[in-house]
Amino acid sequence: MTITLDDARAEPSLRQAFLDGLDLGDLRFRINDLHHAREDDASNLHADIVAAIYKQQSLATTILTAEEHPSIVVTDIMFNTPAITSIDDVLSAIYDHEGTHVDQYLDALHRRNILRLRVFITARQIAAPDYGKYAVVDKNEACERERDITSLMDDMMHMLDEIPAFAAQHTGKYATRISPTVRTWTAHVMTAYERALAIIDEKADNASQDIFTDPHVCFKKLYNAPYLHQEVDEFLLRQNETCMEILSR
After folding, report:
1. Higher-confidence residue: 208 or 44?
2. Do residues 74 and 36 lie in contact, with contact meaning Cβ atoms separated by under 8 Å?
3. Rounded Cα gap, residues 166 and 185, in angstroms
4. DSSP per residue over 177-242, as a string?
5. Cβ atoms within 10 Å, residue 200
6. CA-to-CA distance for 100 and 72, rounded, in angstroms?
7. Which residue has the higher pLDDT, 139 or 104?
8. Shortest CA distance to 124 belongs to which of 158, 105, 152?
């Protein structure tokens, strides 16, 4: 029996079977699995990641696993949001968007750069600030600056990965079939991320160009741009409000 999107929306227990029945073509061979994850599923192997993507209101996410290939996790938001109106919207989100992330993870150089950047960010977050190097006297101020900068670097990494994924929804296999709401929403998010990175590069000497190749240089540039983290946060918050308005139409 073929399980439709309407079936999966009406009955959550059918959602994994619905995902299993999707025609993903070559993407099936590039992923470990395509998994539906409930928000309240504490037994999920990736429960911490699932909790994070529900907090971010994500339709789906691609995660690294112990296997050779990444996995795609789909949330209930995919089935509950009125913005997703057809199977083509679902396939756009999974095949075009998440498929782009799969390719990013399978690119050895990109994967190495991501892992190195995550190690750098984590190390900066747990290490004591180097007061002499940055001429900071107040310890609390130094710690707060560290948190702000590493948080901004994390946001930059996310935006740089997401821009090509959203772009793929406008140029990929299902680009001509997505609903007007999905088209407007994805274009808005992509443009917002591009504008946020432009703000960063203008105020911090093109810091986004260094984030993967030399995180230390990127960190120094961001450190020399006071209040940039707050400015970018406020900008993205305004853009998110507009995004929520688009999705509620």
Report:
1. 208
2. yes
3. 10
4. TS-HHHHHHHHHHHHHHHHHHHHHHHHTTSGGGTTTT-HHHHHHHHHTSTTHHHHHHHHHHHHHHH
5. 27
6. 11
7. 104
8. 152
Q: Which residues of 82-112 are buried (b: 16+ CB within 10 A; e: fewer)?
A: ebbeebbbbbbbbbbbbbbbbbbbeeeeeee
Q: Is the dihedral of CA 179, 91, 49, 8 positive or negative?
A: positive
Name residue, tokens 């918050």.
237
Sign of torsion over alpha carbons 135, 228, 210, 98? positive
**Beta carbons of 59 and 74 less than 8 angstroms apart:** yes
**In sequence order, what are the residues at sequence separation of 6 or more whose Cβ sits closer than 8 angstroms to the Cβ of residue 149?**
124, 219, 222, 223, 229
Rounded Cα–Cα distance for residues 146 and 124 (Å): 7
Residues 37-73 have pLDDT tens digits of 988 775 565 677 778 888 888 899 998 876 788 999 9
CB atoms < 10 A from the CB of 215, how many?
Answer: 22
How is the chain classified by DSSP, letter by letter? -PPPHHHHHH-GGGHHHHHHTS--GGGGGT-S-EEEE-TT-TT-TTHHHHHHHHHTT-SEEEE--SSSS-EEEEETHHHH-TT--SHHHHHIIIIIIIHHHHHHHHSHHHHHHHHHHHHHHHHHHHSPP-HHHHT---HHHHHHHHHHHHHHHHHHHHHHHHHHHHHHHHHSTTTTTS-HHHHHHHHHHHHHHHHHHHHHHHHTTSGGGTTTT-HHHHHHHHHTSTTHHHHHHHHHHHHHHHHHHHHT-
Query: If phi over 0 gives left and psi between -120 and 50 gives alpha, with beta otherwise, what is residue 178?
Result: beta
